[in-house]
Amino acid sequence: MDPTQLNYTTTEKELLTILFALDKFRSYLLGSKIVVFSDHAALRFLLKNPDAKSRLIRWMLLFQEFNIEIRNKKGVENSMEGHLSRIEREHDPMPIKDNFLYEQLLHITMPPPWFVDICNLVAASQFPPKASWLYRERLQNDAKCVPDTKINSVL
């Protein structure tokens, strides 16, 4: 948080963390129902308050882009998170470097998993392009489907 945000009220800090998470994961969350559990009951009422500060009104406009529901969870039921949020820190942690160029992301490559040929055969009747005749024959004749209940006995 920057120095100005450190002076926010507890309620504003709670809203700011939710807003940060929504902004960070925006592409994944748009169009989904989002349920936020908080031990700060004032959040629900603050979002419905028409006489809020201008900063909170701007935040409410950002919240309207999402299908968000804020539910109250009592502090007693939320003990682990309460303890984690109260840990004293001597200094601010190092910022997380999360700015990747799209070109860098596209260069991350992994070999396909071993079962990709079987999946392509089952889903689309598509053999691997450079598969030998023997490999094609084995894929067609030796591939078996195993029910979920029997997987552990096969492995």
TrEMBL record:
Signal peptide: none annotated. InterPro entries: DNA/RNA_pol_sf, RT_RNaseH. Coiled coil: none annotated. CDD domains: RNase_HI_RT_Ty3. Keywords: Endonuclease, Hydrolase, Nuclease, Nucleotidyltransferase, RNA-directed DNA polymerase, Transferase. One of its GO terms (molecular function) is hydrolase activity. It comes from the Eukaryota. Residues 2-66 form the Reverse transcriptase RNase H-like domain. The keyword Nuclease applies. The keyword Nucleotidyltransferase applies. This is Retrovirus-related Pol polyprotein from transposon 17.6. It comes from Mucuna pruriens (Velvet bean). The lineage of its organism: Eukaryota, Viridiplantae, Streptophyta, Embryophyta, Tracheophyta.
